[in-house]
């Protein structure tokens, strides 16, 4: 276990701040799945992160899953299908909003 307080070491403090949710916009929609029985990431921690992300202007969808622990939040029955559908929906929206796209043709962005 970590015994040092990294927040007092300037190099680490800067890295911790830069990697804190909401310190900058993500630039892509975010899906967060949170189980009510998650002991690794408590609900209050996730709610705080979601608030910071939204305050930074991010598009965040939070799904609170009753009775799920950390693992079941991602790997519970049908969960991967739900995640796939969410991603596919976002990709479909992005494609329909992109001008000058030809069906079936890959486009390179820089």
What is the topology?
Layout: H1 10-18, E1 30-35, H2 43-55, E2 60-65, H3 70-75, H4 79-97
Parallel strand pairs: 1-2
Architecture overview:
The chain has 110 residues and is of the alpha+beta class. It is 43% helix and 11% strand. It has helices spanning 10-18, 43-55, 70-75, 79-97; strands at residues 30-35, 60-65. Strands 1-2 form a two-stranded parallel ribbon.
Nutshell version of this structure?
With 110 residues, this protein is α+β, with helices and mostly antiparallel strands.
Number of helices: 4
H/E series: HEHEHH
Rg result: 18 Å
Provide the spatial order of strands within the biggest beta sheet: 1-2
SSE class: alpha+beta
Shape: flat
What is the beta-strand fraction? Answer: 5-15%
Helix fraction?
Answer: 40-55%
Unreliable residue runs: 104-110
Features:
110 residues, two-stranded parallel ribbon, 4 helices, 11% strand
């Amino acid at each position: 276990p970590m015994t040092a307080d990294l927040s007092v070491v300037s190099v680490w403090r800067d890295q911790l701040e830069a990697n804190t949710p909401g310190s900058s916009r993500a630039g892509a929609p975010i899906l967060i799945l949170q189980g009510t029985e998650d002991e690794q990431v408590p609900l209050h921690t996730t709610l705080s992160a979601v608030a910071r992300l939204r305050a930074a202007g991010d598009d965040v969808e939070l799904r609170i899953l009753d009775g799920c622990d950390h693992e079941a939040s991602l790997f519970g029955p049908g969960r991967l299908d739900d995640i796939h559908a969410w991603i596919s929906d976002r990709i479909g929206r992005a494609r329909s909003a992109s001008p000058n796209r030809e069906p079936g043709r890959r486009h390179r962005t820089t």
